[in-house]
Fold each of these.
Amino acid sequence: MGGHGGLFLGFRHQDVFGACGSMSGGVDIRPFPDNWKMSNVLGKQSEYPDNWEKHTVMNQLHLLTPNSIKIIFDCGIEDFFYDVNVKLHNELLYRNIPHEFISRPGKHNWPYWNNAVKYQALFFADFFSSVQKDKNSSY
C-alpha cells in the first residue's frame, strides 16, 4: 500500500512535504475490506467502519489547500485500482486542487511501474529544481 501511504502522508502533512505521489495506489481502501490484511490494523470494516473512513486517502481531501503540495499519481487502465484512481482525479478536479494524473495502458505489475517511475522521477526532479531556484532567488 505504498501509493496509498505516499498520498495519505502527503495530504495529512503538507507542512512537512512539498510534493507527494503514487503509482497504482489503493487510494480508496474501502472497496477492498478483505485484502492485504488491512483488517489486522483497522479492525473488520463491518465492526469498525469509522477506522476505514478515517484512514483512506479519499477522505483526506478536505485537508488539502490548493497549491500547498504538488501531487502526482498514475494508474494503468487494466489495474484493479484504476476506478478508485479516476475517482480521486475527478474529486480533485471538482475541488480545484492542482495535480497530475496519468492513465495509460497497463496492469498492477512491474512492467507498468518500470515505465511509470520515469514520469514520477521527472515530476519530482522538476519539483526539487523549482524549490532550489526559489531558494537561490530569495538571496
Amino acid sequence: MIPFELIEPSSLEAAIAQIDPEDPQVRPIAGGTALTLMMKGGVFRPRRLVSLRKLGPSFTQISAGPGDELVIGAMAPLSALEYSAEVRRHAPVITQAMRRLANVRVRNVATIGGALAHADPHMDLPPILIALGASVDIAGAANERSLAVEDLLTGYYETALANNELITRVLIPPQGAARAAYFKITAGSADDWPALGIAVVLSATGAQVTAARIVVGAATAKVARLRAAEKALIGTNADDKTLTDVAEAATSEADIIADMRGSASYKRELLHVYVRRAVRAAIERNGAPRV
C-alpha cells in the first residue's frame, strides 16, 4: 500500500470537516474490513483516511427509542448486534443472520454503518434491514436527513450519500407481530458470501397475509424489493399454489446477475426455490428466533 495520512477526529463535526467532497482520495473509514482489502489490491489509493473510531459511545450504542424503535449507532460492530438483547427482542432475524455472517474476527471489526455505506450487494444485512423497514440518519456539512435503507442503496456499490455525508445511526421500527425469515445460500462454506440472500417480513390476520416485504440480495446488482412477489402474496393464505405464484413473480422481476458464485440461471433457480421456503419459514416461525 502507498503511504497515506490517517486522521482520528473526536467529534462528528470535525470528521465531516476533514472530508473533502471534491477529492476522491479522501474518504472516511469505519471498520475498514472492505476498504483495507481494496487498498491492498490497489483498487483504492487514498491520500487521507478519516477514522470514525473515536467519535464517542453514542455512535456504538444499541438501544430502544422513545417509540420502541430499535436505534443502532452507525459504529456499532456487527458482533454487538449478534449479542445485543435489544436486537434479539426487536429483530431476532438479525441475531440469527449474524451467526453465519463472515467470521468472528470480521464481525468484531466491521460496523453496520460502514457495511451500508459500502453498498456491496452481496452483504447479508441490507436485505434484512430493507425487509424490516429500516432507515438511516445521515449527517453532512450542510444539514441532517433521514433516508430509508431501500432508498440509500442505489446501485452496484453505489449509495445516495454525498461524498461528505456520514451515516450516524440505523433505526428499525417496531415490528409488532410481524414474522421474519432470512435465507442465505452459499456456493462455499456456510459463512461465505451468499450466492443468494432472501429476506421476508410479513404480517397476517389469522391465516391471511395482510402485508409483506420480500427482498433479494447477492443474486442481483443491487439489493431490491420484489414488489410483484409481494403483491402475489398479500391477501392470500400462502398455500402451495400461492407460493408457486410468488416464486414465479420473483424470478420474473428480479434482475439476476452472474458472478463467481453462480450463473444467472443457477441463481434464478435458487430464488425460485428459496423465496417459497423463506415465506413459509416466516409464517411458521411467527418471528421467533431459531435456536
Amino acid sequence: MLKIDVHTHVLPRDWPDLNERYGYGGFVQLEHDGSGCAHMLRDGALFRKVTPNYWDADLRLSECEGHGVDVQVLSTVPVMFSYWAKAKDGHDLSRLLNDHIADLVRDHPRRFIGLGTLPMQDADLAVRELERVVRDLGMPGVQIGSNVNGKNLDDPSLFPVFEAAAELGAAVFVHPWEMLGGERMSRYWLPWLVGMPAETTIAVCSMIFGGVLERLPKLRVLFAHGGGSFLATLGRIAHGFDVRPDLCAVVNDVPPKDYLGRFFVDSLVHDENLLRHAIELMGADHIALGTDYPFPLGELAPGELIQSALLADKERASLLHGSALSWLGLSKEAFA
C-alpha cells in the first residue's frame, strides 16, 4: 500500500554565511564537524546537532526503503523561517531554501514532494514567493509557522497569503514555532513537549474563530502533530463557544465542531487511543501519515502506529496516502 509521509524536514548541506550576507546576526549556520554530522549554530551558539539524513538524499531514500515509505513531503526546519528578519532578507532566504527543495524533487520526482517556505513577515513578498513556488517550481504547497512574530494566523495582515493559497490551490502545512510561554519552559524540553501542542491549538482556534476557514472554504490546511492539543480539548473549546459567544463568536458565529473535516492533521500523536479518537472526530480521510523525520521526537518507525492499529483497510489507506493526496491536490497515479 502506497505510503506518503507528509511531515519531514530537510536542509541544504551548505548555505552562505547569512549574518555576513545580510549584515546582522541571528541566522542559523551549518558547521560540519568531520564526522558526517553537523552543528546548527546561531551567532556561534549551538542550536542543534544534525545528522546527514537532513541533506543526503541517498541516505534519506535508503531509510525510506527500510521503513516502506514511498514518498516524503519535504519542508524546511522551522528555525529557518526567520520571520523576525528584515522582509527582503527573509524573502531571499526563502528563495534559497525553496530552490534547494525544488532541486531535490526534480532529481527524485516520484520519491519527494516539496513544500516551500515564505517570508510571512511581509504579505506582499510572501504572496510573490508563493506564486513562484507553485507556478515556477511546481510545488503543491507551503509550510508556515503557527504565528508570525506573535501575530496569530487570523491577523488581517496575513489573510492575503491564505487568500492567494486558496486561489492557487496550494496546500498549507502549519507547523508550531516560536512557542508561547518560553520564559517558563526552560527545563525538561517543555517547549517541544507542551509548548508545541499548545501553539498548534492556538493556530487552529485562530483560523476557526477568526473566520479564515469560513471565508476561504477551498483553503486546504494541515496542522502538525495531530493538531496539537486541539482535538483533546475540543469539548472544552466547543462548550466555551456555546456558553460565552460574547467572547468566542465575535468574528465567526459558526461552532468549532462544524469545522471537523474542513482541515487536515497529521498522524503524529504517539498513542493508538489518541489516533482512534482523532479518526472518530475527523474521519480517517482527514488524517495523513506524518513522522517529523528525521527528528527524534517523531515517529521513529514511520507508519508503525497506523499499521499496528485495528483499522479497516479503507481507513488505513486514507491514513497512509489518501488524505495526503487530497490535501496536496495530487493524484495517486503520479507515484505509481
